[in-house]
Amino acid sequence: MLAVAYRIGCAALAPYAHRSSPKKFTQPQLFACLVLKEFLQLDYRKLAALLGDCTELAATIELQVIPHFTTGEETGTGPIYESESEGLRGRPGARSVASSPRAAAVDAIHDVLP
Fold first, then answer.
1. Cβ distance 35 to 1 under 8 Å?
2. Contact 33, 66 (CB under 8 A)
3. C-alpha to C-alpha distance for 64 and 109, rounded to whole angstroms
4. Which of 19, 28, 76, 101 could, after both became Cys, cross-link 9 (CB 3.0–4.6 A)?
5. 88: exposed, middle or buried (C-beta count within 10 Å: 0-12, 13-18, 19+)?
């Protein structure tokens, strides 16, 4: 599921939100983290702990550094989830702009499963 979310993110999102981004994590990596968080019904601290403990999960989405839990909190309120924004609308692998991370997780899984 994490690998699928990552592939969808790679197909639908630019690597970075802005040309001056710190470039620690790509948007597809953060998207996959949010999908995992919602799928497992974790909070951001538990997600960061899980990624730190399970290096295989981090390797699946090519994470070199585990994001601090506040990174996830900031990402979960970004333009992907705002209905006014273009976000994922009209991009390959995206059904609609999600209103929440949970809706994005459901959309991501639905696009892959029959």
1. yes
2. no
3. 25
4. 28
5. buried
**Residue 59, token pair as written in the block:** 């390797």
Interatomic CA distance for residues 44 and 36, integer angstroms: 10
CB 29 within 8 A of CB 7: no
Provide DSSP, 61-90: TT-SSPPPHHHHHHHTTSGGG-TTS-TTTT
Q: Which distant-in-sequence residues (6+ apart) come within 8 Å of 46 by Cβ?
A: none
